[in-house]
Amino acid sequence: MTLDALTELYNKDYFMDNVDSYIRFCKQENEKFAILFLNLNGFKNINDYLGHSIGDELLIELSKRLKLLKWNNHIISRFNADEFSILCKSNDIKEIKKLAMELLDVFRQPFIIDDSTLYINGRVGVSVFPNDGIDSKTLIRSSDIAMSKAKELIGKKICFYSREMYDEIKDKFQYANHLVKAISNNELSVYYQPIFDIKNPKKIMGLEALLRWKSPILGMVSPNTFIPLAEKTGQIICIGEWAIEQVCKQLRIWKYKGYPNIPIAVNISVKQLEQSGFSQSVMRILDDHNIESSSIELEITESVSSGDVPTIVENLRELKKNGLQISMDDFGKGFSSLGQLDIFELDKLKIDKIFIDEIVHITKRQKLVNSIISMGKSLDLTVVAEGIENKEQLSYLNVLGCDLGQGYLFSKPLPVEEIEKLFK
Fold first, then answer.
1. For residue 168, is pLDDT > 90?
2. 284: closest CA among 248, 250, 313?
3. CA 174/CA 157 separation, integer angstroms
4. pLDDT of 79-120, one tens digit each?
5. Beta-strand (E) ranges in 164-305?
6. DSSP three-state, residue 186
7. pLDDT value at position 12?
8. Is the C-alpha dihedral spanning 231, 232, 234, 239 positive or negative?
9. Rounded Cα gap, residues 194 and 206, in angstroms
10. What is the mean pLDDT of residues 280-293?
11. What pLDDT, on the 0 to 100 scale, is given for residue 264?
């Protein structure tokens, strides 16, 4: 059987056999060829929200369009659910790019399925024999990796495989593998960065808890590397709970030592907030360590707008009801939160560092920061500026009426011992 039952394109087995056969031919003739791997964006959502029957009809309609391509010398197959593979019998890179563009052209017009108009687009990954693999499985894997990379890159719809892509995936796997045992091996720690009064920078108004990971094998791993990875793998849920617990333990120690009781902000992932019992879990940790809710502040980011908003809002309201404060971190970096600021019942707004960097020299940045501060004030929110690195920025923020600040001008994130020196 050579055809896929649903789409009547060639099936995976037939495709792989043809690739293997063409590899033998190209080895003898010292020729090159390409594998194109096409994936639909958002196909899972169509199945989830509109039903699998609509998803199947979409695949059938797409296959009809693919059959209209005048590719007599190339083989198109349905490889997996929403993935299509093409054996491109050409050794000309320009020709390969042209074929990839023709593949994407089939998405120019929307798909009309029953009463639904579906605007779908795709991404194409390309691998070339023999540079990117000398057998069918390796070539397919390489084109799949390139397709995944195209999905990551904004505006990129066609991506050619490179060795760097494989190394990146291998590194991510290695990091994810070691991260699993980071808590049990005591490799994670919490650093603290002071948040100060803009009008009186020597006055500490709070701290932000920041995770650090020192692996005995990988060394110091940047939070920009391991936090997104933990979110993707779901490990952020246990790591996030561990972080709240560590902060509560530290607060109890500082209370015993007689240090001032100042609130500590803890970053919370969308994945955590989407857990139905998250608010109860936080309150349990606070109760276990006898910590007042006013001592903990939770920082969310604009990405909450793209999560399970009803569950997130329910958790935040429950936490607010119990006395915790909520702040919006990295404000202005995303695009989705302006219309939803009231939904999340915020107490603070933290202006992202990118707006502070050039505030002294770029008039547009000054106007943007001024607008954010004014908006925050009108909503009765405390406004915090992140990434303050020099006195000129501090002075300008003071003039604009910003409440609190955070950045290397005052202090970088510090381990517990160094923070205690600041307290003293």
1. no
2. 248
3. 27
4. 998 999 999 998 899 999 999 999 999 999 999 988 888 998
5. 188-197, 204-215, 219-221, 264-267, 296-301
6. coil
7. 94
8. negative
9. 6
10. 95
11. 96
